[in-house]
Amino acid sequence: MVSALLRAPAPTPPNRRTPVNDQPTPAGAPAVDPSTWSFETLQIHAGQAPDPATGARALPIYQTTSYAFRDTDHAAALFGLAEAGNIYTRIMNPTQDAVEQRIAALEGGIGALLVASGQAAETLAILNIASVGDHVVSSPRLYGGTHNLFHHTLPKMGISVTFVEDPDDAASWAAAVRPETKLFYGETISNPAGDVLDLEVVAAVAHEHGVPLVVDNTIATPYLIRPFEHGADVVVHSATKYLGGHGTSVAGVVVDSGRFDWAASGRFPGLTTPDPSYHGVVFTDAVGPAAYLTKLRVQLLRDLGPAVAPFNAFLIAQGLETLSLRMERHVRNAQAVAEFLDARDDVLSVNHASLPSSPWHAQQRKYAPKGSGAVLAFEIAGGVAAGKAFVDALVLHSHVANIGDVRSLVIHPASTTHSQLTPEAQLASGVTPGLVRLAVGLEGIEDVLADLRVGFAAAAAAVDASTALTAAPALNDTPA
Fold it and tell me: Where N6-(pyridoxal phosphate)lysine occurs, residue numbers (predicted)?
């Protein structure tokens, strides 16, 4: 059966051994119930127990391409999906499997698929249910790479995308729906606009029209927002960012809630009709709620191949073990930076929903009461020249195209991450010419603020120099 391939998250092994000392539960003692574990416990223990062969407590790196079969019948059973097991690391690897179970447990999903990058994760999440002639409805407030995928690459595949005019308005989403629409898409906290998606409202509109809501939860992480609790159906992450958290590995993940009824609307024949590549299996009949995730792995990952390296999976697991601790410090530091920026006269605006002045402050308090993440952006007085001078003067902040590192990071989105967008598309994404994006790290906050003051001093000097140059008389007007 195909269902044998899907492994539900299992934080403890079936012998009920405790993950602390690996001793069997004494007779008569209450059983350990992983479903009651806190987020902090799940991020350490979910999906992994001591290695049964060696007793190794840390997650092993299974650095192998393939796996030995017991005999020809065993091989046939694995290839026919009649038995669960590893065949080839492009599809499944034990290190990867442990990380998938852990992320699924943290998000509250039935399972997950770890892939080579966040871009691969969101692409596969869409291609799993959309093909030539189909349609996607999306928020316009997106990471630049996602916008390029939606605006340029998906249309080349015959998939059209409509960006709603106002992602905060339910009517805008409803008005964009077509008969061929397959999904709604948005970012729980957008990069770099910083808005908080009204998940319950958007999910309600999506479900009213028989389509799932797919959300990117990269900036929030499940520690700040658990989208499935608010109606989302599929979650994607760039695990490169806060899940990994140290700027050392590239990976992405797709998590399935298992709650969307793929058969009800008749919009998803790839899941509800026979798949000729697996002997005519109908995924919704064979695995029910796991249809989406199963097809994602055994068909798309098999055929397109964006497999995650076992070592990268291991590094993501290492990051997950401290996720809550890091996010608490990230949020605390980012809040201090947002308030520092908001109080400055040379800052025209600050994008961070934690500020009471933010249009999305109420939604932040509803969906992300612990904080709105560590990515923020601000418009500096003096425009592009001031912004460039600010970035170039920073010492502590690293000027890189990334977020979600322990180090504080800075970039000018209009000339980098969103540079391939038209000026109109940049504005729709929340990117203005003088916008500076910060991803606040874990350093001492006074050191972070001191570095920002250096940047503002350089920006002011650049503005003064530009003003003086403009005011100076032209050389040919100088008296002899």
Answer: 241
Within a domain: residue 6? Answer: no
What confidence tier does 30 reach under pLDDT thresholds 50, 70, 90?
Answer: confident
Domain shared by 388 and 350, yes or no: yes
Q: Which amino acid is at 186?
A: G
* Domain assignment of residue 197, yes or no: yes
Last residue of a domain, one of 278, 312, 346: 312
Using one digit for the tens of pLDDT, what is the confidence trace for 270-308? 999 999 998 899 999 999 999 999 999 999 999 999 999
Say if residue 217 is in the same domain as residue 304. yes
- Residue 122's CB is within 10 A of a number of other CB atoms, namely 27
- If asked whether residues 302 and 328 sit together in one domain, one would say no
Same domain, 331 and 294: no
Under the banding of pLDDT at 50, 70 and 90, the label for residue 473 is low
Distances (CA, A) of 286 to 5, 112, 124, 154, 350: 11, 18, 21, 30, 50
372-427, pLDDT tens digit by residue? 999 999 999 998 889 999 999 999 999 999 999 999 999 988 877 777 778 877 77
Contacts of 118 (CB under 8 A, 6+ apart): 216, 218, 236, 237, 238, 239, 240, 241, 251, 252
Bridge pairing between strands 234-238 and 375-380: unpaired
Domain with 351 in it: what CATH number? 3.90.1150.10
Together in a domain, 291 and 345: no
Evaluate whether 98 touches 315 at the Cβ level (below 8 Å): no
- Which of 312, 344, 374 delimits the end of a domain? 312
Give the separation between CA 81 and CA 84, rounded to whole angstroms: 7
Ramachandran area for residue 263 (φ above 0: left; ψ -120 to 50: alpha; else beta) = alpha
pLDDT confidence bin for 355, thresholds 50/70/90: very high
